[in-house]
């Protein structure tokens, strides 16, 4: 069945997890629909960073830092990335995902980076109804990664370069606001960063099933290019809110590393993706990451978190996921000597 279908065996996986949880599939309530408040993320025009007007530049910087502190998420327009490039990347992404599950899972495409579902899930609430290629930037120039999808290579190289440029510009704004002299460029380059191409297939159990389980990102910051299909939700004021799609904007969110570095000034906010019962959803995420031996420490004292390397952080996350099926993240690295004023 799955040999010619583009869909991974998510339905079978879901049924197995339900049985493993000692529940009958027919007893699961698929009728309850939660009415979700919809929000528009802060919208920031990045033209202010490059038009030479100091007042507009200062206002833009202030808006970026405020949104990073109050929301942990914001969206940007006039970001300098061609809309034609974004559309072309989306077309190539769809062509890739429309190939059969067998081809995607066995042909070693994009550095053998294909993933689906959640292989560590022990119950239905830990299942991500999605498939993805999580590709290290250092591999995207290699012809051998693409197979018959040779037209993807040039587009993906250009797309990754543009996303890297934008991510470093935004990171520099946030670092400068902290009064830090460190340069993100020195620790985040094509050898450390990633692109993740996502597809969320139609799900008969929507909207109860996660497309991507609740989590925070384990990087400095993430840039997301999504389609017109909604599904992204984030935690705001202790409740989930749905993000209204805006095809003209890119979404930026703060990761765990910036939260630790900024001593909780910038917020790495929990978010998730909910699936749709009628239409599939596509998105592409760029992750700005440092090298594994990069030390993450607070820029001021008293420090909320202990010093740790990115490698140690990833290792702890993997251990927690293996044991519990879930990420714990920054709470593992709290500095218990820190006294809240």
TrEMBL record:
Record has NADP as a keyword: no
TM region(s), chain numbering: none
Protein keywords: Dioxygenase, Iron, Metal-binding, Oxidoreductase
Report any Pfam family annotated for this entry.
Answer: 2OG-FeII_Oxy
InterPro entries documented for this protein: DIOX_N, IPNS-like_FE2OG_OXY, IPNS-like_sf, Iron_ascorbate_oxido_reductase, Oxoglu/Fe-dep_dioxygenase_dom
Recorded catalytic reaction(s): these are:
gibberellin A1 + 2-oxoglutarate + O2 = gibberellin A8 + succinate + CO2
Biological process (GO) annotations held by this record are:
gibberellin metabolic process
Q: Does Transferase count among this protein's keywords?
A: no
Name the Enzyme Commission number(s) assigned to this protein: 1.14.11.13
As one GO molecular function, the record gives:
gibberellin 2-beta-dioxygenase activity
Q: Which Gene3D superfamilies match?
A: B-lactam Antibiotic, Isopenicillin N Synthase, Chain
* Residue intervals of the Fe2OG dioxygenase domain: 189-290
Record family assignment = Belongs to the iron/ascorbate-dependent oxidoreductase family. GA2OX subfamily.
PANTHER family xref list:
2-OXOGLUTARATE (2OG) AND FE(II)-DEPENDENT OXYGENASE SUPERFAMILY PROTEIN-RELATED
Q: What is this protein called?
A: gibberellin 2beta-dioxygenase
